Amino acid sequence: MPRLIERLIARIPLPFRVLHHQFLLRVIDLEALSIEADVPRFLGQFAGILIMISCMRALGALLFPPPPTMAWATEESALANMLLVVGLIAVVTWDATFPDRRDVLALGHLPVKPRTILLAKVSATAALLGLAMATLNFASGCSWSLVLGGGSLLRSARFFPAFWFAIVAATVFLYGSVLTLQGVAALVLPRKLFLRFSAAAQLAGFALIMAVYFLEPTLSGPAEFADPANHSLLVWSPVYWFAALLNQVNGTLPEEWNWLAGRAWIGLGIATTGAIATLMLCYRRTMKKTVEEPDLVPGAAGLHWAPRIGGSLRTAILYFSGRSLLRSRHHRVVFAFYWSLALAMALSCLRGEMTAVPRGEISADFLISSFVIMAIAVFGLRNVCALPISLNANWVLRVTQLRAPEQYFAATRSLLLIAGVLPALLVGLVLGVRLRPWAQVAGHLGLLFLVGAILVEVGLLKFEKVPFTCSYLPGKANVQIVFWGAVFVISLLSITAALYEQKVLHDPKHDLAMLAGLAAADLVLWTINRRRAQSAELYFEEVVPEVIMTLGLANGMRSMSAASEE
């Protein structure tokens, strides 16, 4: 068998094999997501997380099997989880299937056909999607086949291929839709407008995927499908299309719902045809344009009015940082990842309350969600600011360092407050509009601002550099560490703080005392950072720490001298 596989691989053209391997290593943003820029290690950890989730769901299905009335809800949950993972992969690997400037410059002079490059890129992305499908559903798919098969071996054997067919079809549909959208935009829009569209669409994609996953209601079966109030949801939600497709292939779909499975077939055909057609046209028409593609999206021509925010130095750093976040794909992906993580945890806590009537008091879920959003927003932005934008920015700001270091610290503090604390406050305000009483909501927002200010000062303790300018060692973003830290540490601290605040909100004296204590802590940290800034020296290069290895000869020499004296 191994020899047969080797012979089949040897029949594949060598250029395709080489390009597939290289594109597979580049399908994930090395600087943004990998550990020490090691893609195989990252893929292994990515697969490990999905395997753990699959095993937990499989164990839950075996120990607590759902009743027959919840079979459709279980299938919808599996499809929704798969579409969530595929959607996040599609957004994180945005433009990975399309040729970039490096591809054109490196491969344009070689005898490699464009279709070979296209097939290699598609196969690399397909390998990542296949890894996600296999690891997320390998255990749960088997357990659900046994549970939803009703204990019958024949039904289980029929459900298993139907389940995997629906999973693959849903994956192809969603990823094909994303590729079609990108391809149509690349063909219709000029290159400059396409880059701007990609920036906005990538950020909107994160928000849309998270919002749909956490806010979409679950329909438990044909009875709820028949409710006229849910008709529009069925018409526009791909989750229910492919749930109906699964039951159609399995032979358990009522005839009156064949139209819903038909929408899945139509959507799958349109997405597949559109992706293939737009990719082929893009590789024929846009490869030459990518040679002039800049690392940052160019600014629009014409007059610009930019209001001043403080002094000239602070205004320059704030605008430079804002444009770095909006124009750089690398920073956009990392920053969007942190915000998607924060919104996911918040929406999971508030999913039930957002559709309920206004409550008489602030709930613990609202407090926990707002604390989580604030912590991840500030520390996520602080982590993104450590990533360099380009060597040009590094040298320009290094040679123009004519001001005192404390002014650069003040500009960085303003950036974290404006781009980290302020958006988190706005999200908290939106989530708290329906809650009562408003006086307690306002008090919580004031406390949330002080917590954000304290987190900003904590983030500045070892940040003696200008945002987006200091070079760094590849793979230092540590997204996995932030993920688990947010899940455990931030969640635990947020729950503790929310429970304590919920007690003191009913007592104005204790509430004011808590606000005064947080303000005092913020003032102390601000004073410490200000004194450090007066004697600090900005650095623009991340140096590998020297590792000094000793042979342990000192102890041996001392023992020998002691023995000689005796």
- Unreliable spans are 30-37
Q: What percent of the residues sit in helical stretches (DSSP H or I)?
A: over 70%
The structural domain count equals 2
Q: Characterize the main sheet.
A: none
User: How many DSSP E strands?
Assistant: 0
Structural class: mainly alpha
- The global form is globular
Rg, rounded, reads 27 Å
Number of helical regions: 22
**Terminal-residue CA separation:** 71 Å
What percentage of the residues does DSSP assign to strands (E)? under 5%
What is the H/E string?
Answer: HHHHHHHHHHHHHHHHHHHHHH
Mean pLDDT: 78
Walk me through the structure:
It is a single chain. The chain is an all-alpha fold. It is built from 22 helices and no strands. It is globular. Mean pLDDT is 78; it is low at 30-37.
